[in-house]
Design goal:
Structural class: mainly alpha
Order of helices and strands: HH
Helix content: over 70%
Protein backbone atom coordinates (compact mmCIF):
# COMPACT_ATOMS: atom_id res chain seq x y z
CA UNK A 1 0.00 0.00 0.00
CA UNK A 2 2.84 2.39 0.88
CA UNK A 3 4.48 1.77 -2.52
CA UNK A 4 1.22 2.47 -4.35
CA UNK A 5 0.74 5.78 -2.54
CA UNK A 6 4.34 6.79 -3.22
CA UNK A 7 3.97 5.85 -6.89
CA UNK A 8 0.75 7.85 -7.25
CA UNK A 9 2.33 10.84 -5.51
CA UNK A 10 5.33 10.76 -7.87
CA UNK A 11 3.07 10.43 -10.92
CA UNK A 12 0.89 13.31 -9.70
CA UNK A 13 3.88 15.60 -9.12
CA UNK A 14 5.39 14.71 -12.51
CA UNK A 15 2.08 15.34 -14.27
CA UNK A 16 1.56 18.69 -12.58
CA UNK A 17 5.11 19.72 -13.44
CA UNK A 18 4.68 18.80 -17.11
CA UNK A 19 1.30 20.52 -17.34
CA UNK A 20 2.73 23.65 -15.74
CA UNK A 21 5.64 23.68 -18.22
CA UNK A 22 3.27 23.16 -21.15
CA UNK A 23 0.99 26.00 -20.02
CA UNK A 24 3.99 28.30 -19.64
CA UNK A 25 5.30 27.39 -23.10
CA UNK A 26 1.88 27.86 -24.68
CA UNK A 27 1.36 31.23 -22.98
CA UNK A 28 4.78 32.46 -24.08
CA UNK A 29 4.09 31.26 -27.61
CA UNK A 30 0.77 33.10 -27.75
CA UNK A 31 2.32 36.31 -26.43
CA UNK A 32 5.22 36.26 -28.90
CA UNK A 33 2.79 35.53 -31.76
CA UNK A 34 0.56 38.41 -30.64
CA UNK A 35 3.39 40.94 -30.75
CA UNK A 36 4.59 39.57 -34.10
CA UNK A 37 7.72 37.84 -32.83
CA UNK A 38 6.65 34.20 -33.14
CA UNK A 39 9.72 33.25 -35.15
CA UNK A 40 11.98 34.73 -32.47
CA UNK A 41 10.30 32.60 -29.83
CA UNK A 42 10.58 29.37 -31.80
CA UNK A 43 14.17 30.16 -32.76
CA UNK A 44 14.99 30.59 -29.07
CA UNK A 45 13.30 27.31 -28.20
CA UNK A 46 15.18 25.53 -31.02
CA UNK A 47 18.52 26.88 -29.75
CA UNK A 48 17.74 25.88 -26.18
CA UNK A 49 16.91 22.33 -27.27
CA UNK A 50 20.00 22.16 -29.50
CA UNK A 51 22.30 23.34 -26.72
CA UNK A 52 20.72 20.94 -24.24
CA UNK A 53 21.11 17.99 -26.62
CA UNK A 54 24.72 18.91 -27.44
CA UNK A 55 25.57 19.20 -23.76
CA UNK A 56 23.89 15.87 -23.06
CA UNK A 57 25.83 14.22 -25.92
CA UNK A 58 29.16 15.63 -24.75
CA UNK A 59 28.46 14.50 -21.21
CA UNK A 60 27.56 11.05 -22.53
CA UNK A 61 30.83 10.81 -24.47
CA UNK A 62 32.84 11.76 -21.40
CA UNK A 63 30.84 9.30 -19.29
CA UNK A 64 31.64 6.47 -21.72
CA UNK A 65 35.32 7.44 -21.84
CA UNK A 66 35.61 7.65 -18.04
CA UNK A 67 33.70 4.47 -17.20
CA UNK A 68 35.40 2.44 -19.88
Amino acid sequence: MQKAITFLLIITIATLTLVSAAVHLLTESWWFETVGLGTVFWQRIAWQITIWLATFAIYGVFWVLITG
